[in-house]
Amino acid sequence: MSLSSMTAEPIAVAQLKSALSRGTVSHAYLFSGQAYTRKALGLAFAKAILCPESPDDSCGRCPACRKIDHENHEDLLWVCKDGNSIRKDAVLDIIETLSYKPFGSRTVVVIDDADTMTISAQNKLLKTLEEPPGPAVILLLSERQEGLLETIRSRCIAFQLQDDTGVRAQDAVVAAQSMIELSRINGPYYKRAALLEPFLGERERCMDLLDAMEDQLGVALRVADWTLPEVRQAILEVEKARRSLKMGYHMGYTMKNLCLCMDMRRITEDILWQK
Question: Rounded to two decimals, what is the model's pTM?
C-alpha cells in the first residue's frame, strides 16, 4: 500500500505527499472516517515516512518497505484497542517506546481506534503530543473525532475522510477481474502481486478481494475461456486463502501464495494430479 495507490481521498493524499516532499511532516495527525480508509491511509503514510528511497511516497522495494509489508519494522508501532478500549498502560508503552532512539530517522506510532482511548489514556497522551520525545510521528485513527478530547484534536493535523464503501467494492471487482485475466493468459507473477498492494493493509480488504474473485470466476466460466474444472480449482485456492486469513495467518504471505496458485499452468497441473 502506497499513497499513490490510494484512489480515495485525493486531497488528503496530495497534502501528505506535499508535506513529505517539503520536509514539513508534523508530529501528529488525526485521520477520521470508516475503518478501511483511515487504516489504509495511516499505513500508507507511515510507510512513506519510513521509506528512505522516495521523497514523497514509499517505494515498495527497499528493506524498510518490505519490513512494513511483513509487519516487523522496528520503528513502526501499531497500537490497537484491548477489548473495548485503549487503556493508560498502552499509552505508557508508547511513551517508553518513544524514549528510545529510533533505528532509522524517526519512530512512527499508529493508534488505531484512537477514539476508544479512556480519558486517563488521552490525558497521558496529551503531554506527549505537546512535547514529542525525540523524532517521532503519531498517527491517530478514529471513527469519530468527537471521541477525542478537544485538547488532543487541536494538537493534530486532522483529516475527515469520506465514505469509501462504493470505492472499496469497485476496487475489489477491478482487481479481481485483472487477476483472473492474468491467470488465464499465464501473466507474470509480479503483475498479479502488484494487484494485491491496495488490499494488504487490512484483513477485511483482503476478504473483499477474495469475495470479488469468487464472483468473477463465476463470470469467467460463462463468458471467458475457463472450463468448469479450472474454475473449481481456482475457487478452492481462494477458499484456502480465506481460511488462512480467518485463522490469523500473515496477510502478505497468504495473499501472495494465492497469486502463485492463480496461474493457469499450476491450476492445470493440480487438476491432472487429482485425477
Answer: 0.66
